[in-house]
Amino acid sequence: MKRNVKILATGGTIAGVANSATDTTNYAAGTLGIDKLIDAVPEIKNFANVGGEQICNIDSKDITEKIWLKLANRINELLADVDGIVITHGTDTLEETAYFLNLTVKSDKPVILTGAMRPATAISADGAMNLLNAVKVAANQNSVGKGVLVVMNDEIHAAREVTKIHTLNVAAFNSREFGLLGCVNNGVPEFYRTSTRKHTGNSEFSVNGLKALPYVKIIYGHACDDGLFVAAAINAGVKGIICAGMGNGSINANVEEILIRAAENIAVVRSSRCGGSIVANKNFVDGDNLTPQKARILLQLALTKTNDRYEVQRMFKQY
Ligand code: ASP
Fold first, then answer.
1. What residue spans of the chain are helical by DSSP H?
2. Is 304 tagged catalytic?
3. Which atom of ligand 1 approaches the CA of 115 most closely?
4. Ligand 1 and 117: CB distance under 6 A
5. Among 17, 57, 58, 59, which residue has the most ligand 1 atoms within 8 Å of its CB, making it the best to mutate?
6. Which of 165, 273, 293, 274 is closest to 220 using CA atoms?
């Protein structure tokens, strides 16, 4: 029996339109509506009963917390009735939305994000195949309990681990040291491993009734840092700071001094701009091996529950 999959559209290049079929960079993201996306891939209906819903239609660089909250709450509502969800999304912040949902969706049913690197009007546009594959993964029993997944370019990635690594190529997503979870091989989804961190049905976070998330900024470490942005963030009243530190989470000594004082009142998480492996556990919460952009999301959700540094640290070791 065919499963019921709901496709929630948010915009991005997959819904992008350019003036010419050879133009792959000069286009308006978030132009086509969900009906057009579904109509362009009639084969979808062979694999699932699909329905569409437009959540927003934007370039994902402009995603907001309001949209995240709306999306998470809508998915939690819909999953009572459907077997799986596909979200079409711009690729720029796709990994952040995926991780946010990985922590806030309250169901083991499949939730899959997909997008495209080439606009719908381009020769060799990748959106149609990505959407078909995403629906197949959403309708597949083996996707249950795997957490929120990202399906792009025939690959299946875990929301926690996937990141965008290329600005133009259709092979733009990668899970680096972790590797992908599975592939759509010859049109058939197959899994090879799972992520061991807590997610979805086992997550302690809830956004039900939340109107906003705590204000957390990322400060990017670099040579010759004078601490200007750290001071500005503290003055602006942030509730948390993610340091995208150098190497093993290293922070310039002057900046670190400001942060040690700040950490008496706000949450400070050490992460790394390297894009791989864990960081030193020194003075601040260590962000484990999350990228700074995902550490920001986990800290925001952690701060909805606690201000205790050791509790926040526990969460960074579990999610
Ligand atoms: N700027 C686009 C977006 O994130 C890029 C894409 O979708 O590939 O919406």
1. 34-39, 65-78, 94-104, 127-138, 228-235, 253-262, 292-303, 309-318
2. no
3. 7
4. yes
5. 59
6. 273
Would you state the pLDDT for residue 75?
98
Q: What percent of the chain has pLDDT over 70?
A: 100
Span from the CA of 95 to the centroid of ligand 1 (angstroms):
12
Residue 92 CA to ligand 1 center (angstroms) comes to: 5
Q: What separation in Å is there between the alpha carbon of 296 and the centre of ligand 1?
A: 20
Ligand 1 geometric centre to CA of 115 (Å): 8
Q: Which of 13, 24, 93, 114 is catalytic?
A: 13
**What tens digit of pLDDT does each residue of 114-142 get?**
999 999 999 999 999 999 999 999 999 99
Which segments of the chain are extended strands (E)? 3-11, 17-18, 27-28, 48-58, 84-88, 111-114, 149-152, 155-158, 163-164, 173-174, 182-185, 188-191, 216-220, 240-245, 267-272, 285-286
Provide the b/e sequence for 37-70 (b: ≥16 CB within 10 Å).
bbeebeebeebbebebebbbbbbbeebeeebbbb
What global pTM score does this model have?
Answer: 0.98
Residue nearest to atom 4 of ligand 1 (CA): 90
Residue 13, classified by CB atoms within 10 Å of its CB into exposed (0-12), middle (13-18) or buried (19+), is: buried
